[in-house]
Prior knowledge:
The protein is α+β, with helices and mostly antiparallel strands. Helices cover 28% and strands 32% of the residues. Helix 1 (46-63) packs parallel to helix 6 (225-236). It is globular, with a radius of gyration of 18 Å. The protein starts with 5 loop residues before the first strand and ends in a 17-residue tail after the last helix. Residues 90, 92, 98-101, 129, 175-177, 200-203, 215 line the site of guanosine-5'-monophosphate.
Amino acid sequence: MARRKKIYEGKAKVLYEGPEPGTFVQYFKDDATAFNAEKKDVIEGKGVLNNRLSEFFMIGLENIGVPTHFLKRINMREQLIRQVEIIPLEVIVRNYAAGTMSKRLGLEEGTRLPRPIVEFCYKDDSLGDPLVAEEHIIAFNWATQQDLDDMVALALRVNDFMSGLMYGVGIKLVDFKIEIGRIWDNDFQRLVVADEISPDSCRLWDIETGQKLDKDVFRRDLGSLADAYTEVARRLGVLPSNATHMPKPTLIN
Ligand code: 5GP
């Protein structure tokens, strides 16, 4: 059988050519990176968890009419997605201060924001994904004003959906990052939620204890990342059992 063509390899995922034109296969790796890949590790089972969680969130979004790139899960680590043209911006929505916002503005982590705040960062690892203003986005033609309005609307709908879902299982959605892609239909484009939505790209805190259940566990050495993600999946009913901690295959001599 011919090997699949690799389209792109990122820090946590690989994109392969899909079975039909206009599709890709998205493979979730176990690699964890932080601080622009200065900190790296392999967390067994992370890819499986993120594949399942991202599927769960994307299907939930589709069910409330928010378009996404997701088509179907193929196996433990792979999903079939629509090929999209990724807009080179990270769209961040914050409900509580944390991370770079706390640093930048001197706000204590966990401070409730007066309303959800949407930020844009320019996707460029060599620059450390800098925060940019709408002025930059329009001037440098990364997106149009109409795109920006649509991106903010999409991001806020994702926030409403994700916040409610998480609140229902005792988790506070502090902030999250999404990426948005364009799908072309002849001369018409539509924007869809792309990439992934998972504890790699969200801050999730237990409402009662404040325990972190997201990638900050890895960034800040707070314990087992796989356990934290498994807890999120368990609460959401995504994993019926501890399916990610299955033993690796062993060689039989
Ligand atoms: P911060 O700007 O505070 O570092 O991040 C805000 C939110 O966006 C956090 O939930 C964080 O996980 C997410 N985020 C920001 N940049 C990235 C990124 O490059 N990759 C991923 N996976 N998440 C990011």
